[in-house]
Protein 1
Amino acid sequence: MLYDLKRILDLAEKDGYAVPAFNVYNLETVMGVLQAAEEARSPVIMQLYSRLVTSGNSDYVCPIVLEAAKRATVPVCLHLDHGSGKDAVTIALRNGMTGIMIDYSTLDLEENIKGTKEVVDMCNLVNVQVEGELGHIGKAIDGVTNQFTEVKDAVKYVKETGVTALAVQVGTAHGRYKQAPVLAIDRIKEIKEATGVHLVLHGGSGVPDDQIKMAVQAGIRKMNFSTDLCYTFIESVQEQDKNKIAIDLIMKEPIEKVKAFCLSKIDVLGSRNKA
Amino acid sequence: MKKIIGVGACVLDTLIEMDEYPKEDIKIRANNIFSSGGGPVSNALVCISKLGLESEYLGLLSKDSSGERLINEFDQYGVKTRNIRMVENTTAFVSYIVLAKKSGTRTCVAHAGNVPDDPSLLDFSMIKDYDILHLDGNYLNIALEAIKEAKKHGVLVSLDAGSVYPNIEIIMPYIDILIPSEEFALKFTKQSNVSDAIKKLNHMYHPKVLVVTQGSKGGMYLEGDKEYHYDAFKIECVDSNGAGDTFHGAFLVAYLEGKSIKECVRFASATSAIKCQKAGARIALPNKDEVISFLNERS
């Protein structure tokens, strides 16, 4: 079942869990993610990083996801991750994506609002909803910032842009952490109460499970996992017998590993049996 | 029956037939002066109706003799007018076109009038019953509402991109069948040749169909990732006014019949060539049998 971003996040809001959003890159990662979602009866978001859209990869990957979503018995949303601008958003819409993230978080508040609003208008016209980002979520390698998203900025941003979901900076970063982060759970609660918007946590890889659970309780409704999914897949591919040459056979175990990784995150987010 | 609805310019043309284009600051008699409805989308809808498919114009017209004239002409050609709304105290979109016989050129001076681009005055619910929504870059607010309805119901959206109108980029992401003129393609993409322009348009907007028309030189289309050239038919051109509009209308008819892009551009080129052999953007339009025999004679 192909769902749009609002519909899949509304389900999570109603039932008090977070929808896992896994970054997919190829046929095998799509298979691993979807098999996990089906087995756990969990709604799932499959997302493609913006580079895959501007490079032309999404022209091949999106039809795979859309066909898989059509056959799936659980809700599936196909989402653009960190859309780099209107060009990427346009291609993503043409590829049939049902959710769009636009990331103008490095701009100042007014510019971020202006750019995001334009993308919201562009996407809403074709019934696609938008995730924005406020408070830049940087790279783990640069260390985690304590410059959390301000509640008053979030209120203004949500009101003026009309985003359906909002990625917030509450202590996470992209990539692998040098030491486990400590999330600002209170800030999540405050932003949630003040805006009512669906909140998104980026940089999910490496955040301790108990903190993720608290974040979900506080109001996170979408959580992104990219780095650890990539490591899981790549490490498994590298472990394969060098004498094997049939690609489908080589990929069997990496797909299983991706599936197992996704299942573990589904359980942490509480989305099992919610489809 | 397959059906096409259009939103775009609906113009009252005054055509002035002359041997050659007049010099400035003189008094001179024309060979003939006559008026006719025109506009890219409007002419395409007439062409579609003449080729045997149902077509409808959706939009606002001035509530005056010009508006009535335009509606009457649509009625005469079988283009549906049931959802057109007439707006009081507005003036029509008009153009004056000098057709110069010796050079075979058409020189067009137009004024868009002041019929509002206001979607709140229109109903869009009928769009779901159509197979294609055809646009020409005029009345962008109305076009956006129409696109919204079309996308909700899986109706294909087609654009005749003739000139780079201000803000036309806002509708580009939603176009499934994109057929710009060479002039538009080069100017919009800032490229110096059609081959690069077609690649750039494809990368930017991913339309399902992409053709660039080059008038009497034919044009180029994309199939898969490869671009192909097609020739225009060699004919004695009497009046090229409306040739592009005809191409679009005929292309959509062939496309809805499930023809390949190669067959669609051939059918559209033939329809357009037949039209150019006689004067008038509409009166000279052929029916389907005439296009088929034209093609059979040249196969």
Note: The domain at 5-269 of chain A is CATH 3.20.20.70 (TIM Barrel).
Protein 2
Amino acid sequence: MILDIYSFSTLTASINKELHAAMAPWLAVLTEFVLIGLLFLLFYAILGLFLVYLERKVCAVMQNRIGPNRVGKWGIFQTIADFIKLITKELIPIKNADDFLFNLAPFIVIITSFMVMAALPFAKGLQALDFNIGIFYIIAVSSLGVVGILIAGWSSNSKYSLIGAMRSGAQVVSYELSVGLSLLAIVVFSGSMQLSTIVESQANGWWIFKGHIPALIAFVIYLIASTAEINRGPFDLAEAESELTAGFHTEYSGIKFAFFFLAEYINMFIVAAIAATLFFGGWMPLHIDHWEAFNRVMDYIPSIIWFFGKTFFIIYLIMWFKWTFPRLRIDQLLNLEWKYLLPLSLLNIVLISFVVLMGWYF
Amino acid sequence: MKNSEELKTFLADLIPFATIEEGKQHLEIVVPLDKWHETAQKLRNNDRTPFDYLISLTAVDYLTKFMVVYHLEAASTHELVVVKAEVENRDKPQIDTVSDIWVTAEFHEREVFDLFGIRFNNHPDLRRLFLDEGYGFPLRKDFKDEINIIELSN
Amino acid sequence: MSDEVIKNIIVREDEDYIINMGPQHPSTHGVLRLEVCLNGETVNYLTPHIGYIHRSIEKMCESDTYKQIIHLSDRMDYLSSHMNNEAICLAVENALEVEVPLRVKYIRVALDELSRIASHHLWWSAFGMDLGALTAFFYGMRDREKILAIFEESFGSRLLHSFNTPGGLMHDVHPNFQKHIMEFVHYFRKKLPEYKQLLTDNVIFHNRTKGIGNMTRETAIAFGVTGPSGRGSGFSCDVRKTAPYGLYDEIKFNEILHDKGDSFARYLVRMEEMEESLNILEYVADNIPEGDFTAKMKPIVKLPEGEYFQRVETARGELSVYIVSDGKKFPYRIKFRSPNFSNLFVLNTLAKGGLIADLVAISGSLDLVIPDIDR
């Protein structure tokens, strides 16, 4: 069992208790909302800056370069400098653009990524919303981001943007299916859609080990499909810079561009976090049945470190293949989904149901 | 160049109206202007050496006349001939296009039209290639541009 | 003539969805504008618009001496600047019947092949980038740097060396020239497998290039597509073989020919050409004889009256220079038949019916250098 000293539930419960003691119940809940909102906002900003820095360093390693190394030691303040540059840049108005939608689009994109974050279990007892339909909520909300991209492409009054947006629409709608089906695999295994229950169900081993072959298939499909869903290389057709200059955000500048940019990185984090939670046990330490001593040692590592460790490992995987593969073509991309991934994940669901029915998993 | 005598006699049979002479490097054929299109077709579609690769197409301004120069190679045997056609009328220079024979000529002819002002009859898309409409023809020897060209005295 | 202004306006259908790729666009590699008419993502037709970087080099040459022209020719295909120089030098040397020292011939071949590899490096980098493999760019540049260091050591310049002069070379090469070439040959032989891992064997890369932009041998000849692009279609057009110049008739090397004619074939031709160039370099660097670095030439070169035609093989295809001399120190007319000018216009034929992504893959595989098109 995970050590209670690393659990955040006592901390959150005591804050809750204090607040309720100090003020009226509705005011206490409102204060909690505001506090959590602020906390997420802060986390969001720090995470965005860190991910951009990480990507630049990882890509530099892949490309025999050093990467950012001027601003601060090892260039750690580089992204902050970039961010300041982006805020101070002029927001260029576009002639004949639909102003309302043009300005709305970045917010839609960034709000959806914000909303998904609420359901993620970061550590034991550290989760803003613990639905009983957590996975369903995540799938539903995360696919709203494409609306923002479509609006951005449509309202920019630019042909490159429009092509990028259309590509993105086709891509996200297609790959949504595979993402959903591969997540369904774990739902079948654990028998619950609630993220905290799924994590608890991995106390005696992560699903990627317990579920052996079908879980592995589901994980690979999830990794491919989710990378496509967040428009990252080698599936970055929506912003294929050698074809469409910058795709749907060609016309955006300054902070509005930064919103798209940030949302893309946060989405990468979310995708990795979901994979870590469902396949790699989330904040659950590595436990192996009947190895009591080993399990005790693993328990001494705080749950929040487990969660972020796993998440960043998957982020590294995603970055790795972005920086090694060429980009697919749009028809090949759709072929991959409809002809290979989707039938495979449907078969996989049947296989998993069978495995679960026969009890052939650990 | 080997076989050049043989090629010369063959060409003399093929295009009797042209003057063929041994140049410093290659065979040089001078073709009368009105027979040019027919000659081009014969050079391209003959059984011995079809000159199917148009290396270069250009013109030279001799102040009294234009000389349109074609460098042709047979892609199979790598024999090279230089074909020239004189355009005497300098005010309204015209020559038949060969873009229907060698596709690449379409763009080389556009370049020559752009820089020399030689019209190519029956050309499918004779527009200026580099310069604006109404600009002069800079590779003509009498082209004057007082702003951009600084004349050097010999 | 000038009073008759020709207006030729392209009339379009209402449904045509035109996008302008360029003059500033990441995949046109310079100031080329492609007017692409799309149907969805499919290319209906495209019209190249050129002339954004036209410097009228041919006109400028008419008031320059032959030694000055060398420096202008660098600026056409800046990646094959050595070959461009050599074309003029050879034309002048042939016209004056000057015999250049053997050492010069060897060094020229070495530089030819070094430039060819460096140019193919840049093409490989940029082609990878066109297809979205950004890492390829840095691998290519890393190895190109080694060649540029050799150039810099000997000529003091990295890109536009203007190192040739009629009759020989500007000055002798650096004493380490041979040693560094051999070092590079060994180094690059070791690095070539990385190229294979990163792009050549990649499945996505195969999907993106195989069967894309099919060019038959007839099309290649009709459009005058030369160089690796032409040889990918089985058009034997390597001037080093068909009209040998310099030392090329004495050196043993293979002309690389592929007959598929798609983007991948053009890719393979260039990759194999790099290996072939390494072999030539190995032979040449071992055998550079001692001797003068230039033949005796008059300070001002005057060509006898007549016409001279010289062809060389640059990294992109056949460059021919056609000089008309009237016996003065300036050429009467000089014409550069640049390989890219002919190679560009086949793009419409190849890209028609494909997707935008294919268009990028095709134009990347043709390896266009825009200043060479415009001159």
Note: Chain B has a mean pLDDT of 81.
